[in-house]
Amino acid sequence: MTTPGGAILVWLETEGRGLGEASKRLALIASDLAKQGQLTVHGAIMAGAYGPPPLGAFAGLGLTGVLAFKGRHRPTVGERAAALLQAAKLLSPDILLVASDERGREMAPMVAARLETGLTADCVSLRLENGLMVQTRPAFGGDLIAEIITPIARPQMATVRVSGAQPVKANGEREPRPPWRGHGPGHEPGLADPTLPTLEVLLAPPVMGEPTVLKRTPLSADDDLEKASVVIACGLGLGGPEGVSKAKNLADKLGASLGATRAAVDRGWLPGHRQIGLSGRAVSPNLLITLGVSGSVQFMAGAGGAKDIIAVNADPRAPILALARVGLIIEMENLWPELEDRLGPL
Q1: How far is 215 from 85, CA to CA, in rounded Å?
Q2: What is the number of helices (H) and of strands (E) in the chain?
Q3: Residue 170 has what pLDDT?
Q4: CATH number of 7-203
Q5: Alpha carbons 110 and 95: distance in angstroms, whole number
Q6: Domain with CATH 3.40.50.620 in the chain
Q7: Among residues of the chain, what percentage have pLDDT more than 90?
Q8: CA atoms 180, 182, 185, 186: torsion sign
Q9: Is there a contact between 36 and 176 (Cβ–Cβ < 8 Å)?
């Protein structure tokens, strides 16, 4: 597969026998970026035991070509990283993009180190300026927004926050969701050319060095915060473990997933994999209910994809109240009796 002119390479992931929503979103972001500099967009993916997704799965995403690497049914991070490294060596792209999810955050640094290039993590905005990709990400705990460029090394490499994206249909159309902050304020990636890409299937290269696993902690089904339609977020305003316990019971009654701010996690009220925010996980539920959460920039970096927010806080000056569709200014100790009158004991 040749790449005339400059190219953008995106790492794609399968979901079942199709293409994952985050991968579709990343491809559309790359497609819009490519239009700013007359670049082509190419994808790389692990085919797995079922083979690559059907060609129609890539329609409307602006991809010129896709390299599919045949590997095991459940490839490891090292196997994925080796495939992406091989794709980068074959295509010599100007830009390489990976979704900023748990898997992408682990494999991207491995690939960047082998390519001897820089890596900007957790980008919330990308644009081309004078031939360089300007990568925007929060810095210093979210107090500043940094714009980063890679003037010399190639490829220019970044992981991109795609959570909060609209689900992408087979024809490239998307369900309505709040705007992702992708290449400019309020800008949404446009639909790409519906032309089908070329698909080339290759054998997976030898695995890159795997990290040493010190401990495995299985996650229960309700830990998939990224896909939850309703999330309840616990903040310091809950007062302690007793308040968190009531929030968990409320989540069980509502069929919601439970998340937390960094401050609540740091105090041991909830485990780290439930943390939402800049240094945690990004969520995009239909409804986010915050309990005692102030709404800091760090937290909203991971919660900005919520369609609607109901905020409960005792402080009328809490920033979250200005972002919420519904805001309740009430002490938590006064809220629980009101809820128990309607929902039963918590």
Answers
A1: 27
A2: 8, 17
A3: 39
A4: 3.40.50.620
A5: 16
A6: 7-203
A7: 46
A8: negative
A9: no
Residues whose CB is less than 8 angstroms from the CB of residue 168 and which lie 6 or more positions away in sequence, other chains included: 21, 24, 25, 28, 60, 61, 174
Helix 241-254 × helix 332-343 angle, to 10°: 30
Peptide bond into 155 cis (omega under 30): yes
Q: Name the residue with higher pLDDT: 49 or 237.
A: 237
Q: Are 316 and 330 in contact (CB under 8 A)?
A: no
Give first-to-last CA distance, the chain, whole Å. Answer: 59
Q: How many CB atoms lie within 10 A of CB 154?
A: 17
Q: Would you state the CATH architecture of domain 221-343?
A: 3-Layer(aba) Sandwich (3.40)
3-class state of residue 193 by DSSP: coil
Full DSSP string of 205-260? PPPPPPPPP----PPPGGG-GGG-SEEEEE-GGG-SHHHHHHHHHHHHHHT-EEEE
- Give the residue among 102, 97, 346 at the shortest CA–CA distance from 223: 102
Note the pLDDT tens digit of each residue in 166-177: 433 434 444 433
Measured over all CA atoms, what is the biggest interatomic distance in the chain, rounded to whole angstroms? 67
Domain with CATH 3.40.50.1220 in the chain: 221-343
Among 93-107, 173-187, 217-231, the range scoring the smallest mean pLDDT is 173-187
* Torsion sign, CA atoms 301, 228, 258, 306: positive
Per-residue pLDDT tens digits for 274-318: 999 877 888 889 999 999 999 998 898 888 889 999 999 999 999
Task: Compute the Cα dihedral for 233, 238, 239, 242 and give only its sign.
Answer: negative
